[in-house]
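Predict the 3D structure for this chain.
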Amino acid sequence: MYTTLLRIGPTTGYAVALASRLARANAYAALEGLVTRGAATRASPPTRPVRYRPTDPQALLAHLATLQGEALDRLSRALRDASHPGEPATKEVAGARAVANLILQLVARAGRVDGVLAAELWRPTLPAWRHASREGGAKVDLRIAGDIPAGAESIAQGSVPADAPTTLLFDDAQVVVTAGTGDAVAGVWSSHPLIVVLARRALGRT
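Done. Predicted structure below.
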């Protein structure tokens, strides 16, 4: 429904129903759902018939990322006082967007971050690095794989060869390792102690 509204632009529920071949009642219900989730806005009364406008895609992504971050914050607080620590885990991560979102969340919650970051992941994760560089943020020892992007000089401590894999260590407890470029980016997140030790050694940490 969002893609239909985005394609035809601000319009009425009737027009969306025709374009999407849905019953009018179903189309209006779906549009109201988009409004509730922040993916569309409804023209203020007394406009008749009611017109719906799609939210800008980039603004929508930022909104959804904020909601996801808030949900993860709530979950972290709920689990922080758990009586038993969770079992070490390792999860696969695939795609540049998924990798960037994971790094954003981990940097935002870390007290210390060490490692190497692929240059192409710098801009998608920039908000987290800026937050970490502020007073009270995480202690960061970061190197860029490849040429250091503009604006990264104040945060990154240097560079390494461009073919070096992204390897990030968070609070000596969690690791993200990725390889590849663009949509072919893939890697793992892990809290397994052995993988943490291997990451420490790869980064020259003892």
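The mean pLDDT is 84.
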